[in-house]
């Protein structure tokens, strides 16, 4: 599968208004396109950040949906966006999360493009078993861009309390897995889950 992420920064006071608009229309617009496999909205209301993620069964489906929805997407986001960054990733490994997830942690990575398979193996063999021991962990994914040597690990948790309690244990898992994979951590962020759609 492939995932398109849209990362926005803007006025913190407009986060809720923007999310309300997305909740009203986004899932319906996306689900009507061939190859749709899911959609999520994550927010940081304190700093004024919104991250959107849409899942597609193929690169062709992702590209077609992006072109078809550009106009309406721009309208829905216009009131909020101060900056916007769009990326497309390969979902190298995914444990699709519960629709009841309430919090999300994102770790951004850099790696040698030649070591992409090593990263995927390390995530599956070392990180996933560790994550699954964390109380409140309900799903995660490794997204990568093999050509650029960039990626991210996202972890979904039942609620904010579970997310906060997992910080120390996940830090230990992350330290061991990054050494094994030969990757560099570029940033660490936490979000609330505003919307999580997982079609049957």
Record the SSE blueprint.
Elements: E1 2-10, H1 15-31, E2 36-44, E3 49-56, H2 59-77, E4 81-95, E5 103-110, H3 116-131, E6 137-145, E7 150-157, H4 160-165, H5 167-181, E8 184-197
Antiparallel strand pairs: 1-3, 1-4, 2-3, 2-8, 4-6, 5-7, 5-8, 6-7
Helix pairs in contact: 1-2, 3-5
Which properties best describe this structure?
200 residues; alpha+beta; Alpha-Beta Plaits; eight-stranded antiparallel β-barrel; 5 helices; 8 strands
Structural account:
This protein is of the alpha+beta class and 200 residues long. The chain has one domain: Alpha-Beta Plaits. The chain is built from five helices and eight strands, in the order βαββαββαββααβ. Strands 1-3-2-8-5-7-6-4 form an eight-stranded antiparallel barrel. Strand 6 and strand 7 form a beta hairpin. Helix 1 packs antiparallel against helix 2 and helix 3 packs antiparallel against helix 5. The longest helix has 19 residues.
Question: Can you write the helix and strand succession as a string?
Answer: EHEEHEEHEEHHE
Uncertain runs with pLDDT below 50, 5 residues or more? none
The total tally of domains equals: 1
Whole-number radius of gyration? Answer: 16 Å
| Residue fraction in strands | 35-45%
Number of strands: 8
The strand order across the widest sheet is: 1-3-2-8-5-7-6-4
Basic shape: globular
* Overall pLDDT level: 95
Structure annotation, total helices: 5
Overall CATH class:
Alpha Beta
Specify the biggest β-sheet. Answer: 8 strands, antiparallel, barrel
Oligomeric nature of the chains: single chain
Structure classification: alpha+beta
**CATH architect. name:** 2-Layer Sandwich
Helix content: 25-40%
Termini gap: 16 Å
């Amino acid at each position: 599968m492939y995932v398109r992420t849209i990362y926005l920064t803007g006025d913190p006071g407009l986060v809720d208004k923007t999310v309300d608009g997305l909740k009203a229309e986004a899932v319906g617009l996306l689900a009507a396109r061939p190859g749709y496999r899911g959609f999520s909205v994550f927010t940081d209301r304190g700093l004024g950040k919104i991250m959107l993620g849409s899942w597609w069964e193929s690169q062709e489906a992702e590209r077609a949906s992006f072109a078809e929805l550009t106009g309406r997407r721009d309208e829905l986001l216009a009131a909020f966006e101060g900056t916007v960054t769009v990326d497309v990733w390969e979902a190298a490994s995914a444990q699709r999360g519960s629709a009841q997830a309430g919090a999300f942690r994102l770790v951004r990575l850099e790696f040698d493009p030649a070591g992409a398979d090593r990263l995927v193996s390390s995530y599956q063999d070392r990180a996933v078993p560790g994550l699954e021991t964390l109380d409140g962990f309900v799903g995660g994914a490794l997204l990568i861009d093999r050509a650029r040597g960039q990626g991210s690990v996202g972890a979904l948790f039942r609620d904010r309390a579970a997310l906060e309690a997992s910080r120390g244990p996940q830090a230990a898992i992350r330290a061991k897995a990054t050494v094994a994979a030969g990757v560099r951590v570029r940033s660490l962020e936490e979000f609330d889950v505003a919307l999580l759609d997982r079609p049957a």
